[in-house]
Amino acid sequence: MTSASTLRARLFAPRWQPLLIPLTAVSTALVAGFLAMWLFGKDAPQGFALMAEHALGSANAVGESSIKAAVLTLCGLSVTVAFTAGLFNIGAEGQFTVGAITAAWLGAALDLPAPLELLVVTGAAMTAGAAWALIAAWLKVRRGVHEVISTIMLNWIALHLVQDWLVVGPLAAPSSNAQISLAGTVPVHASAQLPRLIAGSRLDFGIVYAAIAVIFCWLLLSRTVAGFEIRLVGAAPGVAEASGLPNARRTYQAMALAGALAALGGLLLVLGTEHRYPGTFRTGYGFDGIAVALVGGASPLGTALAGIFFGLLRAGAKGLQLVGIQPSFAELLQGVSVWLVSAPLLFAALFRKLRGARAT
Amino acid sequence: MSDLLELRCITKRFGSKPACENVSLTVRAGEVLAVVGENGAGKSTLMNVAYGLYRPDAGEIRFDGQPRDIRSPRDAVALGLGMVHQHFMLVPTLTVAENVALGSEPRRGIVFDRQAAEKRVREISDRYGFALDPRACISNLSVGTRQRVEIVKALSHGARVLILDEPTAVLTPQESVELLGLARTLAARGHAVVFISHRLREVLSVATRIAIMRRGHLIETLDVATETPTAQSLAELMVGRAVAGPQRPANAVRRTAGAPVLSLRNVSLDGHAARVALHDISLDVRAGEIVAIAGIDGNGQSEIAQIATGLIRPDRGSLLVDDQPIAEATPRVLRDHGVAHIPEDRHASGLAVTQTLAENIALGRQTRAPYARKRWGFHWIAHEGRTTRATELLAAYDVRPPEPERRAGDLSGGNQQKVVVARELDQQPRALVVVQPTRGLDVGAIASVHDKLRSAAAGGAAVLLISLDLDEVLALADRVVVIRNGRLIGERDGWTSDEQSIGALMLGATSATNAGAA
Same domain, yes or no, for B328 and B449? Predict the structure, then answer.
């Protein structure tokens, strides 16, 4: 009774069906999208066919989808891991930015042999993201500052430090003309670029990073004692403390991991797609991570599913331009599914009916 | 007496299991109807159905002879039902009058009419003798006073039937006596009071009729005047077999206490708004003995428990285990020293209600076998071992339902407490800090928890018991230390003292002479 009314319980699916609600939300959103297209007089079947083609129809399409899915999944995992420890990480965007600039800087500054370069840059970018997130964790544990406030503020600090100083100042690519602000940073060495997996497609090693991250988070949270402690600290901090759990340490660890995951997302775009930190780079992926985690029910596997879905949707939505629909249609569907997940009461009646139908 | 509320053939199931089956019960104006039963017998479920919190799966609710469809507490309140829950629903930062008015605020134009609200509280308070200050802030009030605010709130919404869910569970003995008086007054003024309780003596002293529930069924409804039930006969009806009340078993043998295991040495704590100051507390709890701290609630016993379990650090003085001072006395360090804790507030520090029973049982020992196994340098959850151990413990402590994957929040309060007791005693602690271990438990469960505590002490554990229930203290304790205003003011022998002498000391009626050897 009491727990049912908490924000946590309202926002996230109950543990006994972690994937049911996200799947329902996503499919309902697709139906809603189909109806919306049709109502506005567009050719909805044609639109969906185009979406499918642009999401999965070719090696190139699969590459585009998987890059987006990988980055969205990593940012979603960042929010999910923090949330499991009872922290609302609004700061994935800032951690993403810190990871991206670290990757761009070291990818250009270091010149190591091929596999080593990538490993070192990856480790450094994740560490930087973790450190950035730890500021919020430290403020929370030591000073009682709510992480929502501190991570939002850290987002802006990261954004302005990077965009208005590092990218146009110390790390700017040397350029003879006035368009310095569009040039971005010095390009990274080839050894720092994420290897492409298929010829003729931008599908790169980032997908492997994301897959490892999903498996790691899933193992950590559901199979290890450390994950058990993180969950307990998140679910019942007072009980955890009285039981002798290291609340502060688990908070730091979860937040550091969250920061590292978001930073890895930033690294994927820099080392895989852009090969430098571009002059204008406001992707919003960090904020999308919140939506991905919500739809994914704050479980690692659900988050991966939601990340893949939104990745396909975004890549596919480009095709909608051929029937006269803006690609931001993808964000519309993303919004609809978040809204559906946030309103579980809409589904509660449906699930009751389904269960009743099964029982009789 | 006219029938006010009539429940006809109510059935309520959770999942496939009926919590209430075919229960019919009538509540009449001018009576105090006690509903008694074990934890999970369905008392609260039945009343929550009447109050609109649950929808019955079958059956009918009538009010004033009319069939009514009560879909929500709002409907119930509109009909004239009021319910005071165990966990109060008051806004601590608002005043008494503001809380009472909440939801039906008197207005002057668009402005909240504070004076009218205060007047309303004063009227009700005077009429029934509640002695409430409408301007007092809730956060400054004692638990007993807060409860009276809840009752006034219900009355101000026009409650004719007042349901009190285990109202004395949170009260001191004095407050309980006052509450029972209030219940009688309300009944005499034509209200119907439904009194859900485990405390059979209170039930017998206040109720005009007693409804006994067992495992979802209404077993019997007794008229107190004509059928003169006793605590013993009620207890037997409740559990369906003969049981003993909270008392020392006849064959109990006094053990010789060993060396001190858990000690407080000259411990002082500075008080502030949320906690009571402690003054120079020194106390030894020896291996094999049960030491009880008796006192009226809010005299510093919670603070002693928190210090003894590492949740707060004393400002002066030290905590010792085996006569060695513990420098960094955190919960972890104390647990590593073998100090277990059955906490006062189950939800705040005992049980993670959103997690499963198996996870809650593993808590505190999650890195050890059989709950974990080490592989590749990491501790991994041993799901099978955990489930097996949890299943054993749930069965051994008669937790219902005994399903390890059930969420702890799905269990009744008494069964949740059994889970905490099972977890803490299963660690074979060297010292055990136990706070209100049987609050809200039924007679059967109380006896079983008491047995477990006695055998823990017999096995050599040093048990520090903090309880507001003198029956419990006298049934368990070898020594009784009395606390008042943050000071230990005397000690009595647990085997030879009676309730009167300790009660008098708690109230400060006698001098603080140490009569431990009396």
Answer: yes
